[in-house]
Inverse folding.
């Protein structure tokens, strides 16, 4: 199987273009992290034909969410991505009010990239 590519479209941004004006493509780790962030931020039921897709993490912002619950949702969604190796399982750390901000969620995820088997860290803050 050849390298899989996606359009470079990181969550919250526009499509990226190459220096020649074509749509920029991503593969490998960039593709993996782009797809993980899309999955975690997408509300369940919002994709037609894929009603179970999405973790809906933004719904937890400002709700006094339990960090363990957010981590469990994150971990279970991570394991649905083909670019995340199931073993060892992702380690997810969540802060539901980073820096005292109750209107934000910060996450740090240690996982193994598949198929490279590279240990990888994905950290982000949602607000």
């Amino acid at each position: 199987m050849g390298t899989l590519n996606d359009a470079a479209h990181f969550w919250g941004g526009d499509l990226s273009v190459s220096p020649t004006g074509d749509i920029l493509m991503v593969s490998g780790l960039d593709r993996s992290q782009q797809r993980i962030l899309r999955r975690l931020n997408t509300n369940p039921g919002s994709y037609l034909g894929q009603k179970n897709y999405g973790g809906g993490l933004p719904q937890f912002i400002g709700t006094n969410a339990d960090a363990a619950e957010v981590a469990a949702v994150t971990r279970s969604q991570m394991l649905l991505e083909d670019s995340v190796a199931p073993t060892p399982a992702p380690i997810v750390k969540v802060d539901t009010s980073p820096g005292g901000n109750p209107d934000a969620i910060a996450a740090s995820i240690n996982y193994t990239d598949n198929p490279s088997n590279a240990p990888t860290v994905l950290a982000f803050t949602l607000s």
User: Anything to note?
Assistant: Residues 28-41 form the longest helix (14 residues). The mean pLDDT is 87. Residues 44 and 54 are 5 Å apart (CA to CA). The longest strand covers residues 105-112.
